[in-house]
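To make this tangible, this section ends with a sequence with its structure tokens:
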Amino acid sequence: MDEARGSGVERHESRHDGFVPAAGLSSAAADAIERHVERYLGPVEYVLHEFVSHLVEAHVLVTGPTADRPYRSLVTAGMSGRPMTVPDGVNPFAEVMTTVPAAWSPSPEDWPVRVLKQVARLPHEYGTWVGEWHSLPNGEPYTPDTPFAGVVVAPMVTVAPEARVIHVGDGTAIDLLALVPLHPAEVALKVDRGTQALVEVLDEGGVTELLDPDRPSLLD
């Protein structure tokens, strides 16, 4: 995982020898996540449930398109079932999201869903954390039909700032982070030259958390 300041690649080893039953969300947290999604991202149209989960549940809420947000948001519900292993001053609770075009009705086999689930489990599997501007290279395109070969974790920019944090009634705050898919050359830029270089390229290209499956590389 490439850390936030672009200081190189950290490689982690799993802290677990095999299957670890998931720590589920409290009912208060599950309700807070769903209410937050419906308030800021759109009505939840359906949920991609997990029935047997390792470490944390990684259910995915899928919103329907609206006039204001004419695409679907995909949001994990379960990553925050365990705290991440974080440095001092970093919130240990997070969920992750991305979007897909309105015509796409995601299933568990679709690569954006698989990536969300992978990222939701990663900090718990490896005893680390996921935060803004961490990048997660995949090494190769996620599928033969997509050019994307990694993601960068970024703040959502198409919503109000208050949408970036989910507040649970017990006082817990859960960061809601976006996963922005990257082409191989963009992943390499982040690793080689750091966060600021990638941010400048993404800003210049108008790239946000709104996934365009046909987006060309900003560097080729």
Observations:
- The first helix runs from residue 27 to 40.
- The helical segments are 27-40, 111-126, 184-193, 195-205.
- Confidence is low (pLDDT under 50) at residues 1-7.
- The chain is about 25% helix and 20% strand.
